[in-house]
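Input (structure):
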């Protein structure tokens, strides 16, 4: 019952914050006609009511939803690859000093390079634009996941490992019963942050690379924003931006819910 009340309060707060945000946005966009002067730095900001009308029209068009689908599959592909490769690498870096001393310096040199700086190289190296964009998306999540896994293992209290070994536990038992469960929360955090970054990266990659159309019907939300900018349709740009925000929020929420289920033994507040 208390959890439901808390959930209801949180929902009401979220609704109020959204209403206040939209109201401030509407007033700012209409400041010229309403107050006789434009607020500084706003320029020709589209107002929410116009954006909603454009959004309602776009929602009836298949191309808009194909753009969602195209970006989603790129995010899913890059994120899945980052999880499959990043988790074992993070565990290996934490488990072996020799491996960490050999690989980690190279990892740290590559990690600060922004994923978008890889776009020209990815377009040249990978045979298709689709693979190039997915690779850029993979980079957006990969480093975050590895660092979180490495930090999770290294923060583990070594006394648990020592106690298990003193009781005759094998390396496999220590890994399966102590190291892996203790690392799962860090993996979940890295995954939640990483999938948010993938949406930032995939949209920018689609804008820069000029993503090819999927089945001739949609080229991704990033391409939608860029095409709208070139066509001078600022309302449609905002629709694309809000769509990205919603998509990122839904994906991050799904990862967090899965993480809550996987770490059900933890006491949450």
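Output (sequence):
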């Amino acid at each position: 019952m208390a959890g439901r009340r808390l959930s209801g309060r949180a929902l009401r707060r979220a609704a109020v914050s959204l209403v206040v945000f939209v109201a401030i946005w509407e007033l700012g966009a209409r400041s010229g006609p309403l107050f006789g002067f434009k607020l500084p730095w706003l320029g020709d900001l589209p107002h929410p009511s116009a954006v909603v009308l454009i959004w309602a029209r776009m929602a009836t068009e298949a191309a808009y939803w194909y753009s969602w689908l195209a970006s989603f599959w790129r995010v899913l592909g890059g994120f899945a690859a980052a999880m499959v490769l990043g988790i074992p690498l993070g565990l290996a870096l934490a488990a072996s000093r020799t491996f960490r001393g050999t690989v980690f310096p190279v990892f740290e040199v590559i990690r600060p390079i922004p994923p978008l700086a890889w776009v020209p190289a990815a377009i040249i190296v990978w045979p298709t634009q689709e693979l190039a964009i997915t690779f850029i998306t993979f980079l957006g999540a990969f480093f975050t996941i590895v660092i979180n896994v490495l930090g999770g293992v290294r923060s583990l209290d070594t006394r648990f490992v020592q106690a298990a070994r003193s009781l005759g536990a094998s390396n496999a038992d220590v890994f399966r019963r102590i190291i892996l469960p203790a690392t799962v929360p860090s993996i979940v955090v890295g995954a939640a942050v990483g999938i948010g970054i993938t949406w930032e990266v995939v949209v920018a990659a689609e804008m820069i690379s000029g993503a090819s159309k999927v089945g001739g019907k949609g080229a991704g939300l990033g391409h939608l924003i860029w095409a709208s900018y070139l066509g001078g349709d600022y309302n449609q740009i905002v629709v694309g931006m809000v769509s990205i925000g919603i998509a990122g929020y839904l994906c991050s929420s799904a990862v967090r819910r899965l993480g809550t289920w996987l770490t059900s033994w933890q006491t949450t507040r």
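Notes: The chain has two domains: 1-45, 49-262. DSSP finds eleven helices and no strands in the chain.
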